[in-house]
Prior knowledge:
The chain is about 70% helix and about 0% strand.
Amino acid sequence: MKCSEFEIRLCEFLDGTLEETSRREMEQHASECELCAALVADSRAVQGFLERVEPVEAPQELVTSILYRTRHARSSVWPAIGWRRWLQPLLQPRFAMSMAMTILSVSMLYRVAGVQIRQLEAADLNPIQIWHGVDNSAHRLWNRGVKFYQNARFIYEIVQQWRALDSEEEQGAEAAAGSPPPEPRKLEPSPPPARKK
């Protein structure tokens, strides 16, 4: 038997509620281990002292005082009960860890994307600078969308012409062996749509 297991079962051993085999194991371990034997002796001395001491009656106002102080302490920590109920699920450890991991992930993504986070200055809060930044971002986003649309349209046209050529070749293979092969067609991309300014 290990000392840790002995300490766990010590209360049952002193109360006499252990089975016979467990009690013998405890006694054998106490006879072999000096630390556990000292622990048993100290525990029996404390138990004997507590049996000799007269019971102390608690004052009548003790329960009231404890309840008053715990309620007062709780109300000082959570002054607004209305939003306390709303925030209570968010203060669980799993949500707090999720929030911390989200912040860490976003900060890592900013680093990988090359976004430089810096302190705001007074010039950054100038309404004209903010408007120019928003306008510039909107124009960039619009231009990217137009380029994507034009590229997608061009690729779609190439795919359609490729499919048409494949179907013509299949039809030509099915035709008689004596017929001449079809003439190749020239691929010409359609002009891009005019930009609106």
